[in-house]
Design goal:
Blueprint (H helix, E strand, L loop, with lengths): L1 H36 L3 H28 L9 H17 L6 E8 L4 H17 L3 E8 L11 E2 L2 E2 L1 H10 L5 E5 L7 H5 L7 E5 L7 H5 L5 E5 L16 H8 E4 L10
Parallel strand pairs: 1-2, 1-5, 5-6, 6-7
Antiparallel strand pairs: 3-4, 7-8
């Protein structure tokens, strides 16, 4: 009760202060309007003062809200642009029979620039080369966490989904898994089709296992950099696609898979 009394007293004091501050401004206006339209000043003055006071308070609250609102964070998309460029270069080099390229990705119902941008630049690279691109997209429902998607396992791809893709596109040149590393059981390893496309992984979170390279399942992968950039690298802002790529990513293949932590 004491808090409510204090609150109402404070509100009353604010209205009174606003009324006193605006009285000297509006008093001549009320007198002129009363003389012109023949009404008593108090009939209109009190409601209008209350209305003006409310508008002033609302305006102040809106001003405070806008001033305190967090500014949107601007993302530097340069690393992701050049990720797409290098993706294109590596996949084109891997696709020695110029077969169609299949790109599998998780797709959200909302735009995610760090995913959409590299794929755009990847598509542009394949278009210039004249390679066919087939998109395989698993759409995530709005608000559905990635780890709750059936095809996802701790940031990777379930083995049965991976096998289904290999069997669906046996004549593809390269199967690109964007953002996902396949997880295979021993039984699924024995079920791998003999005739299958080369596999290129772009690992955004989880690093692929060495065994995937040793067993010839993955031919190459782009992973977040876990080693120092090449010696002599420029410490200033990157200038070329190679500079941008080398700062944030690295390529792993069967010859360098031994550097992986597991």
């Amino acid at each position: 009760m004491y808090f409510l009394k204090l609150l109402f007293s404070s509100i009353g004091a604010v209205f009174k202060a606003i009324g006193n501050a605006t009285r000297s401004i509006w008093e001549p206006v009320w007198q002129g309007m009363a003389a012109m339209f023949k009404f008593q000043q108090d009939e209109v003055k009190r409601p209008l003062i209350v209305l003006i006071s409310i508008l002033v308070i609302v305006g102040s609250l809106v001003s405070i809200f806008l001033s305190q609102r967090r500014r949107s964070v601007k993302i530097n998309l340069k690393p992701f642009e050049h990720l797409g460029v290098v993706m294109g270069e590596k996949v084109i080099a891997l696709d020695d029979n110029n077969g169609p390229v299949v790109l599998w990705r998780m797709k959200s119902q909302v735009k995610i620039p760090v995913v959409d941008v590299p794929i755009k630049y990847f598509k542009d690279a394949l278009d210039k080369k004249g390679l066919e691109l087939i998109m395989e997209e698993n759409v995530i429902n709005a608000g559905q966490p990635p780890l709750m998607v059936p095809d996802m396992m701790m940031g990777g791809m379930a083995g049965d989904k991976f096998l289904a893709l290999l069997n669906k596109y046996p004549n593809a040149g390269v199967l690109v898994l964007f953002g996902n590393t396949p997880y295979l059981t021993d039984e699924q390893l024995r079920s791998l089709p003999q005739h299958r496309p080369k596999v290129f992984v772009v690992a955004m979170h989880d690093l692929p296992r060495k065994s995937l390279f040793e067993n010839g399942i993955i031919q190459a992968a782009i992973v977040p950099r876990f080693q120092q950039p090449p010696a002599g690298g420029n410490t200033n802002e990157p200038q070329t696609s190679t500079d941008w790529f080398d700062r944030y990513y690295m390529v792993v293949d069967p010859q360098t898979a031994s550097t992986l932590p597991w």
